[in-house]
Amino acid sequence: MSIKKETTLLEDLNQALAAETLAAFRYLYFSRIASGINSPPLSEMFEEMAEGEWKHAAMVMRRIVQLGGIPVSKPSEWEKRSFHPYNDPPRRGNDLKLIIRDSLKLERSAVEFYQRLAGKTRDSDLITYRLAVDAMVEEAEEEQKLASLLD
Ligand SMILES: [Fe+2]
Ligand SMILES: [Fe+2]
User: Fold this and answer.
1) Which domains does the chain have, with CATH numbers?
2) Given a cut of 70, is residue 3 above it in pLDDT?
């Protein structure tokens, strides 16, 4: 792998680390602010999703270190580096549809990101390729779960 390629890969992985960390925070936030008649199952779902994103952050961070890179370490960098733009979470905990739509955008963005990463690494780095595919499958399941709530 050329140095240039590797630099780009580490940048991609740091984008993922930043985005996953923010996603974990966001879903935990939603699990705590959701209110209204349908909120208990939704809170539970978001709490589980927060744990899932945190695991993604952990596996991405491990891969960055394995590749000799430095995981993004400053919270102020998370927002700048994330593959998905960060906006303030919806404030109204009773607008469950808004919270779901917001999360759906994040999941779609994650599926696209990991699909691109898988495409980039398929022929050059099978470990990162597998990480990307595993994460993509999980993001797609979450995307589906969220989309089905809006039917
Ligand atoms: Fe994730
Ligand atoms: Fe996700």
Assistant:
1) 3-149 (1.20.1260.10)
2) no
